[in-house]
Amino acid sequence: MAATNDFTAANGLEISGFHAGLEALKARFANYRLYRQTVSELSALSDRDLADLGIHRSMIRRIAMEASYDNRTA
Fold it and tell me: Where is the YjiS-like domain (predicted)?
Protein backbone atom coordinates (compact mmCIF):
# COMPACT_ATOMS: atom_id res chain seq x y z
CA MET A 1 0.00 0.00 0.00
CA ALA A 2 1.38 3.38 -1.00
CA ALA A 3 0.56 6.61 0.75
CA THR A 4 1.71 10.14 0.16
CA ASN A 5 1.61 13.21 2.29
CA ASP A 6 1.22 16.58 0.63
CA PHE A 7 1.67 18.67 3.71
CA THR A 8 4.22 19.98 6.14
CA ALA A 9 2.27 20.19 9.34
CA ALA A 10 5.20 20.52 11.75
CA ASN A 11 6.15 24.01 10.66
CA GLY A 12 2.75 24.91 9.16
CA LEU A 13 4.10 25.97 5.79
CA GLU A 14 1.67 24.29 3.45
CA ILE A 15 -1.14 21.80 3.37
CA SER A 16 -1.62 21.68 -0.38
CA GLY A 17 -5.08 20.19 -0.92
CA PHE A 18 -6.76 21.55 2.19
CA HIS A 19 -5.02 24.91 1.98
CA ALA A 20 -6.02 25.42 -1.65
CA GLY A 21 -9.62 24.56 -0.84
CA LEU A 22 -9.65 26.92 2.11
CA GLU A 23 -8.23 29.76 0.01
CA ALA A 24 -10.84 29.16 -2.70
CA LEU A 25 -13.59 29.22 -0.07
CA LYS A 26 -12.25 32.48 1.38
CA ALA A 27 -12.18 34.05 -2.09
CA ARG A 28 -15.77 32.96 -2.80
CA PHE A 29 -16.96 34.37 0.51
CA ALA A 30 -15.16 37.67 -0.13
CA ASN A 31 -16.85 37.91 -3.56
CA TYR A 32 -20.22 37.18 -1.96
CA ARG A 33 -19.70 39.87 0.70
CA LEU A 34 -18.79 42.38 -2.02
CA TYR A 35 -21.92 41.41 -3.97
CA ARG A 36 -24.18 41.84 -0.93
CA GLN A 37 -22.57 45.16 0.00
CA THR A 38 -22.96 46.50 -3.54
CA VAL A 39 -26.62 45.45 -3.72
CA SER A 40 -27.28 46.98 -0.31
CA GLU A 41 -25.63 50.30 -1.12
CA LEU A 42 -27.25 50.68 -4.53
CA SER A 43 -30.66 49.66 -3.18
CA ALA A 44 -30.41 52.35 -0.53
CA LEU A 45 -30.16 55.08 -3.18
CA SER A 46 -33.28 56.90 -4.31
CA ASP A 47 -34.61 56.46 -7.83
CA ARG A 48 -33.40 59.96 -8.64
CA ASP A 49 -29.86 59.21 -7.45
CA LEU A 50 -29.84 55.99 -9.48
CA ALA A 51 -31.08 57.89 -12.54
CA ASP A 52 -28.24 60.39 -12.10
CA LEU A 53 -25.84 57.44 -12.27
CA GLY A 54 -27.61 56.02 -15.32
CA ILE A 55 -28.82 52.98 -13.40
CA HIS A 56 -32.35 51.60 -13.28
CA ARG A 57 -33.38 49.78 -10.12
CA SER A 58 -33.80 46.55 -12.10
CA MET A 59 -30.08 46.67 -13.01
CA ILE A 60 -28.77 46.59 -9.43
CA ARG A 61 -28.23 42.84 -9.12
CA ARG A 62 -26.53 42.55 -12.51
CA ILE A 63 -24.20 45.44 -11.70
CA ALA A 64 -23.37 43.93 -8.32
CA MET A 65 -22.73 40.52 -9.94
CA GLU A 66 -20.38 42.07 -12.49
CA ALA A 67 -18.58 44.10 -9.82
CA SER A 68 -17.95 41.16 -7.53
CA TYR A 69 -17.57 38.11 -9.77
CA ASP A 70 -16.16 39.41 -13.06
CA ASN A 71 -12.41 38.78 -12.81
CA ARG A 72 -11.67 40.66 -16.03
CA THR A 73 -12.25 44.02 -14.28
CA ALA A 74 -9.55 43.41 -11.68
Answer: 26-61
Backbone dihedral region for residue 68 (phi beyond 0: left; psi -120 to 50: alpha; all else: beta): alpha
Residue 66 phi, psi (nearest 5): -65, -40
**HEC string of the chain?**
CCCCCCEECCCCCEEHHHHHHHHHHHHHHHHHHHHHHHHHHHHHCCHHHHHHHCCCHHHHHHHHHHHHHCHHHC
In the predicted structure, residue 41 carries a pLDDT above the cut 90: yes
Which is nearest to 68 in space by CA: 42, 41, 40, 30? 30
Query: Among 33, 38, 74, which residue's Cα sits nearest to residue 55?
Result: 38
Closest CA to 51 of 41, 40, 42: 42
Q: Give domain limits for the chain.
A: 15-73
